[in-house]
Specification:
178 residues, mainly alpha, Fusion Protein Consisting Of Minor Coat Protein, Glycine Rich Linker, Tola, And A His Tag, Chain: A, Domain 2, 7 helices, 3 strands, 43% helix
Length: 178
């Protein structure tokens, strides 16, 4: 019977040695390359449950609004718009022949536009000709305005409607001849 107590003693020694080794493993400093891999039980904090979607949406940062377009056209934009406007009307205009002995007649037409480019009210001839020989020229100008109605205003100029809603256009036959 002496063998059994020896075996029990050996088992007890092995169990003590194993628990001592396990305690040693917890206390000994670890190699720096293994620190990242080893979880720290004491430093670990429980992760809170995810908040409901409505709260997440409320916390989400609001997207920044796009920058506001400038409130007025720059001088170069204004010049480009005026050039486009004249080019568009000249494409619609078929000037009547002016008498050779008459002074050149440059018709001036005052226009009021809606935001979509259509005429808000009928065009007004600012300087009607006093010479009856020039009246066909004035009629051709008014016909050109009607032929171009509504104007296909380019998208880049639509935000500046307040600047182009009232315009006076000069119909010069010398410019049209070019």
């Amino acid at each position: 019977m002496r063998i059994v107590p020896r075996t029990i003693k050996a088992l007890i020694v092995v169990a003590i040695a194993a628990s001592a080794y396990a305690g040693y493993q917890r206390l000994r400093p670890r190699h720096p390359s293994r620190l990242a891999e080893a979880p720290k039980e004491a430093a670990r904090t429980p992760t809170p449950p995810a908040p409901p979607p409505a709260i997440v949406a409320a916390r989400a940062p609001t997207p920044t609004p796009p920058p506001e377009p400038p409130s007025r056209m720059t001088a170069s934009q204004q010049a480009a718009f005026d050039a486009w406007l004249i080019k568009t009307y000249l494409a619609c205009w078929k000037p009547a022949r002016q008498p050779v002995d008459a002074d050149a007649y440059v018709a001036q037409v005052r226009l009021a536009y809606n935001p979509d480019g259509s005429l808000m009210k009928p065009a007004k001839l600012v300087n009607p000709p006093s010479d009856p020989a020039l009246k066909p020229q004035a009629k051709s100008v008014m016909a050109a305005v009607q032929n171009c109605n509504p104007l296909p205003v380019p998208a880049q100029y639509r935000p500046f409607y307040e600047q182009w809603k009232n315009k006076t256009i000069h119909f010069d036959p010398e410019v049209a001849a070019r």
